[in-house]
Amino acid sequence: MIRLRHSTSSILLLLSLAAAVLVADGFNWQTSSDAVWAMNCDFRGNDVGSAQMRGEDCSRACDLKRDCSHFAWTRYNGGTCWFKNGRSVSQSSAIPNPDPGAVCGILRSLLIANGRDSFGMTPHDPFANARPYLPIFRFDDDAGGWCFPDDKEAQRDKVCNGRFDRRAPVYVHSKQCGQYTVYQYNLWYGWQKGCVNQLFGGGRHGDDNEYVQVWTLGPSGPVARVRYNQHNGYYFREPGRGAEMHGSRPVVYIGKIAHGAYHRGCTGGKFWQTLIPNRGTDFCVGGCAYWDDFRNSEDGNFVMDEGTLRKDPSPREIDCDAPNCTPGHNSWRSPKSAACFGLNH
Asked: Which region is the signal sequence (predicted)?
């Protein structure tokens, strides 16, 4: 956290504690635990709010605000932190501010997400451990016209993104669970359409998060198992026992309607082919339940294989003791609707 006070002695103390200094564009840039900052500078426009507070609290307040990427602080009205947004901002975006005590800064998390170090100068990969296990997401061949992954941080407007992008954001969270390192990958959708029809169908809602977990032996060991989530349902598969792998990367099939994640499962045919008896685990009626969503990707019309990794700003908690599949979902009247169906296939 930046420690800024009005007094000259506090500023001198801050300078003496700074980990590093870079003089560029006329500003003396400092680095702290959560930001890169400088005195007597400002950023033009892109305000997303402001709040009265001490200068020492400005960077932390920005870090906690969902749409804040950089900030400026002035003595206005007793001390005001100006929150700003812009993913491409850098030190070169700063402009002079002659107001005594003025400060501007950029969150280090933004610089790192853009592949730069604390000063925005040296390439850096904060996802070096998670990147080798990034799933390959295969969407239904007929998913065009439905909703594709979007920017969880910038586009929270409950609008369906109908444009497929093989480099769309994939949000990452990790946790150590005993001998396993769990990498949790999140695709975010602005909108989920109804399961029966697009206008009146049930299940439609905004801000749809869907997850895939990859459990590895240690931070960079082999994949032990993969957890496929479908809203509140989930199940595990192991490599060689249902989890399709491309090297160290799981291949994950995304439901066209509800965006759930699945192993290969019912990708054996189109809707009319599911009416053929005895199709076993390839059976997929395209309904509203967990197991039934369309996920046919034989033609590979929409394969997301170059997702852009970002730190998940609001991750779902990782349960180290989760059972093999959603408790209770194997006792539904229709076993094809159950998250636990087919665990031995």
From this structure: 1-26
